[in-house]
Design brief:
Layout (H helix, E strand, L loop, with lengths): L4 E6 L7 H14 L4 E6 L1 H4 L6 H5 L1 H15 L6 E5 L5 H9 L5 H5 L2 H9 L7 H4 L1 H11 L4 E4 L1 H21 L7 E4 L28 H9 L20 H9 L3 H12 L5 H28 L3 H28 L1 H21 L2
Parallel strand pairs: 1-2, 2-3, 4-5
Helix pairs in contact: 4-14, 5-9, 5-15, 9-10, 11-14, 12-14
Length: 352
């Protein structure tokens, strides 16, 4: 490969939000110009926590929305390959071949898996969720990804991938590159409720596709300092979601520092702080909305990108699986059996 490859993506569970943007999309926009970029629509991963018929029926629509959000955020469609994970069965083949290179205790130490089970209401860990990092390793290694931009939750998953790649190469030969993890500048973003990270399942998100009025409404309802009952009461900036968003999305640093100083001194109300945040967020989202409108006007573009990307990726994955099977000796095992069967067949035919 003359150009290094990047693998990234999301589960198709709905539209993307600001948490996705700071956790990974900003890095994707920045990096995809430098790398040959594959964007996975990870619907098999979705099945680990959402696997009803209704969930699956929503995959196609959610996939379109997800790709539209990524393009609207600034990814150039000419420099990105989007593909639907479930449409490439060879990914499952590679997952099967890799799963014996990691132990159950190692997977149980991945911290985010228990959180995912809890957040999805699972009382016990499904087998597929425990193996989530192995399937993710198959995703990365099937296209020989060398760069993986992820949020904090997936950092431990990528480390499992690195371990599996090293173990495979040591056992069978140098087939896989060892992928490099690139973490976001802002690892995660607290939700508008201030209780946990921004998450679709919690309903505490600001979507990349929200219109200006919706953004303002959500911002005005944001959690702030619960001990601050009046504007003249000194407030706490640290841990305050409104100021966390100002720090990330408001480029007017002088304004942000002035608001913080006055907030700590009890000289500004929550309404003014939130109003200025809504203005900053809408200013940030306006170019994304404009690009989204252009993409939606180009009917068939997103579906075509997914189909062409999936077909291209499947060719790549087939080649990788062939290399893996050859390195492991699996192809020679069957070849030996087949040749013996053919020789036996010829011997029987010759004796007649």
């Amino acid at each position: 490969m003359s150009v290094a490859r990047m693998l990234t993506g999301d589960r198709p569970t709905g539209r993307l939000h600001l948490g996705h943007y700071v956790g990974s999309i900003a890095n994707r926009v920045r990096l995809h110009q430098r790398y040959e970029s594959f964007f996975i629509i990870a619907d098999l991963h979705m099945l680990t926590t959402r696997n009803t018929r209704e969930d699956i029926e929503r995959v196609a629509g959610n996939a379109r929305e997800m790709v539209t959000d990524v393009l609207a955020a600034g990814v150039d469609p000419a420099r990105a390959t989007f593909y639907l994970q479930s449409a490439i069965p060879e990914v499952g083949d590679l997952n099967t071949l890799l799963q014996n290179l990691v132990t159950v205790p190692r997977l149980e130490r991945v911290p985010s898996l228990k959180d995912m089970a809890r957040d999805s209401g699972k009382e016990e860990m499904p087998y597929g969720l425990l193996g989530y990092p192995v399937l993710q390793a198959a995703d990365i290694l099937c296209v020989k990804g060398q760069v993986v931009p992820v949020g904090r939750d997936n950092a431990a998953h990528v480390e499992v991938t690195r371990e599996i790649a090293r173990r495979f190469n040591n056992l069978y030969g140098p087939v896989f590159p060892i992928p490099e993890l690139i973490q976001a500048d802002t690892p995660s973003l607290v939700g508008t409720d201030g209780a946990a990270k921004m998450s679709k399942s919690r309903g505490n998100t600001i979507l990349l596709s929200d219109d200006a009025a919706t953004v303002r409404r959500k911002v005005m309802g944001m959690y702030t300092d619960p001990n601050r009952v009046r504007a003249d009461v000194p407030g706490r900036v640290e841990g305050n979601p409104v100021f966390a968003y100002h720090d990330v999305f408001n480029p007017d640093r002088a304004q942000v520092e002035d608001l913080k100083e006055r907030y700590r001194g009890g000289r500004v109300g929550d309404v003014e702080v939130k109003e200025k945040l809504a203005v900053a967020l809408n200013r940030f989202l306006d170019p994304i909305r404009e690009r989204r409108a252009r993409i939606e006007d180009d009917r068939g573009l997103v579906d075509q990108l997914i189909v062409e990307g999936t077909e291209r990726t499947r060719r790549e994955v087939r080649q990788t699986v062939t290399e893996v099977r050859r390195a492991m000796g699996l192809t020679s095992a069957y070849t030996q059996v087949r040749r013996r069967a053919e020789r036996a067949g010829r011997a029987v035919a010759g004796s007649r």
